[in-house]
Amino acid sequence: MAKTSASFTLMDYTDGISLITGIDSNLPLTCLYDTSNQSLNPSWAGTTSLQLTPVVRKAGGSDVVSTMTGKVWKRRIAGASSWTAITSGSNGETINATTGVLTIAQDKLTGDVWQIDYQFAGTYTDPVLNLTFPIEIVITLSRVANGTSFVVARAYATGGSQFKNSLPSSLQIKAELIRGTTQDTTNLSYQWKKSTDERSDDCRGG
Prior knowledge:
This protein is mainly β. The chain has no helices and 15 strands. Strand 9 and strand 10 (132-144) form a beta hairpin. The chain is flat, with a radius of gyration of 23 Å. The model has no long low-confidence stretch (mean pLDDT 83).
């Protein structure tokens, strides 16, 4: 009598989800510090405050930050062993209770503080699986000083750099030339290039 057997593996992909997380910043992550006049660029206390936007998306889905519970922000100065909880409305920091956006309208990278970490944390409960997922995201900001009246060219995405289902439809990148801590706009021309497949091509308007 002949016998045969076979084995099959069934995997249920509803037993888990993938979460895509990050923190978007509307300003460069590195501030330039002019030692001659002790000023910062950008200054978070200036006309444009620093905004840190937490991003938590289900893979293939939408942002779920607004549905999270226990949303908190903390900060930690480089070298410190513990985090400090942030209270909205104090120390120049305001938290949007729904979106979780942290607005910082006070320069923190001053004196002996050259680097600071901000942490966003909370809990997401998936309505389909009825499972809870703890979320913890950290972003680091710092300052550099390269001497008196140093010149730095920089570029950054003003609206964040994360896309979902081709949205947003476009990405805005801002280029600046900073002399000391002041933006220099005299006698300047910019040439944008994009690199794909080890090639570098000029970008043209239109």
